[in-house]
Amino acid sequence: MPEQQQMSEEQVKELQEKIKNMSPEELKEFQKKQCIFCQIISGKVQSKKVYEDDKCLAILDINPANPGHTVVLPKEHYSIMPQLSEEEIAHLFMIAKNISNAALRALQVQGTNIVVQNGIAAGQKAQHFMIHIIPRKDGDGINFELPQRKIPEDELELIKKQLEKRLGVVKEVPKEKALPKIKELVKPKIVEAKFKETKESKKPKKSSASKKSKRAKKASLDDIARILGVK
């Protein structure tokens, strides 16, 4: 691409004032015109495309951290992740997962880093949201180690409360209060059965049958209730 001419201070101030007075729709359209990735998506700028559907495009990074470094771009222009809907985010990460799996098999790598740089403070340089998939091999020289810092307990508790408040987390109800006791739910009703006396029942039974009858009498309703756990 040809190099862009450097803007004068006066032109920069004029542009900043123009942007300040834009509606959200006008600002988004302006960003799209200035965005190199929107030009790639529209086909005005060439790229090494590895995947495309109606919602996103995946291309090889021209300055890769490792061979096979791929970026997944939503076709609609978004600057940062909060601007995307849950459905769009879900779709983009599903594609990122598929590309990661393809890299593991096709490039014989041992792992992948799936990275989002969300905001300037997080290292975001492009004005178009994207997901990076970086294939990894042992000893490749890329360092993604995060520092491990000690934070006081009271500060951790404050951060926890602030996040809970923003997320609208409902505190857990103690188990004994949340559900009634199981015995109360399954407590069986004991009903005494009534049998009509028939001619057969009047007949004398054999000794083995009488033994069985005695055993049956021993298994009273109280015993059955005790087995079921009813006091």
Distance between the termini: 85 Å
Assigned CATH class of the domain at 9-136 = Alpha Beta
Q: Give helix % range.
A: 40-55%
Structural class: alpha+beta
Biggest sheet, spatial arrangement of strands: 1-2-3-5-4
Coarse morphology: globular
Average pLDDT reading: 79
Biggest beta-sheet profile = 5 strands, antiparallel
Radius of gyration based on Cα positions: 35 Å
Quote the beta fraction: 5-15%
The tally of strands reads: 5
Spans of 5+ residues with little confidence (pLDDT < 50)? 1-5, 181-188
The H-and-E topology, N to C, reads as HHHEEEHEEHHHHHH
CATH architecture of the domain at 9-136: 2-Layer Sandwich
Using the coordinates shown, work out and report the CATH topology of the domain at 9-136. HIT family, subunit A
Figure out the total of helices.
10
Identify the CATH homologous superfamily of the domain at 9-136.
HIT-like
Q: What attributes characterize this protein structure?
A:
HIT family, subunit A, alpha+beta, about 40% helix, globular, single chain, 5 strands, about 230 residues
Helix and strand arrangement:
Blueprint lengths: L8 H12 L3 H11 L1 H7 L6 E4 L3 E5 L9 E5 L11 H21 L4 E5 L15 E6 L16 H15 L7 H4 L3 H5 L12 H4 L4 H12 L2 H7 L4
Antiparallel strand pairs: 1-2, 2-3, 3-5, 4-5
